[in-house]
Amino acid sequence: MHRHFITISTALVLMLTGIVSAAEARTQHNHCKGAGTFVNGEETHIDTNGDGQSAGVDQGLVNCRSDSGVPFNNTRFLFQEEAEWILRPVTTCPVGTSEELYIDPTHGQHRAVVTDEKTGDQLFGQITSATFCVNFATLPITFTSSAQGENIGGTGKYTGATGSFESHSTGSYLIFGFKDGVFGGFGHFNFTNDGTLTLPNDHSDHEE
Length: 208
Fold this sequence. Notes:
Blueprint: E1 26-40, E2 56-66, E3 75-84, E4 86-88, E5 99-103, E6 109-116, E7 122-135, E8 142-154, E9 164-179, E10 182-199
Antiparallel strand pairs: 1-2, 1-10, 2-3, 3-6, 4-5, 5-7, 6-7, 7-8, 8-9, 9-10
């Protein structure tokens, strides 16, 4: 009965930065930490499976470092993402979870864009598998999520980017209410991301 609560995306925010210093493709390992905010109750009209539940959106900041060291240590990105979560019986989440939602290759969907604060170049990504656990018994309402995903290109130095990532997040609603029978809420989340980024060509000329 709480389905309308969960329209946020959870910052499974990819991505993972790296630097390529040779003309051939090179894979970097990355670790990112970030935070974001979300608002429920706004209609996005993104309903790709026709189930009547529109995708939620969120945004925030993420800082990343790569195993190549400088200059990508402490690089900051802005992110925005959307996701359609699908409700299912609680099977994977911890005992006591009120609701469980998920995304997989054939149920739900997700897209994210992170923008390099320094260059304006953008990296695109999507979740391929994720679980979202909500506890309505607590005040504030809390949630956790875990996800796996992939990089799917970008602009500038991230053109043709590939790679994979794993993300974990926690968050809560800071306030919520109803108007005209529609739920609205405002909240926050924090997350970590670990993964790889492969760029097909040398884009060092984009670095400053």
